[in-house]
Structure prediction request, 115 residues.
Amino acid sequence: MSEKSKDNVINIFSNTNNSRIAPGVSHKVKFYAGFNYVKLKKDKNGNKFNKDNLLKYAQKCHYMVTVMREIDGETVLYSYDVPNADLFKFMKSFEENTLDGVIIEIEKYFPEDLA
Prediction:
């Protein structure tokens, strides 16, 4: 993420946004299993979420996961293309030491949208 685009991101978990995630929407930030979260029941247009549409969206979604490693005294980056269905398996491979390194960035993308 570039420095310029970071300026446009709202941190919904900051102290100043602790009670609301968007103007006019009052979802409290909660804490569970070691992580902050917000629960959303409707989209930004006030519509309830559609399970089938969300599952179709998830099937199309991929993540470009950038991992930093030290090899022969040099810092190198590896970029992994991880389909949404395999994201948890990918993350677990770090816990099980199948993969090593430091995750630097996880960027969502849709392969059919690439030009």
Notes: Strands lie at 30-32, 35-37, 62-71, 74-83, 102-109. Residues 1 and 64 are 12 Å apart (CA to CA). The chain has a mean pLDDT of 84.
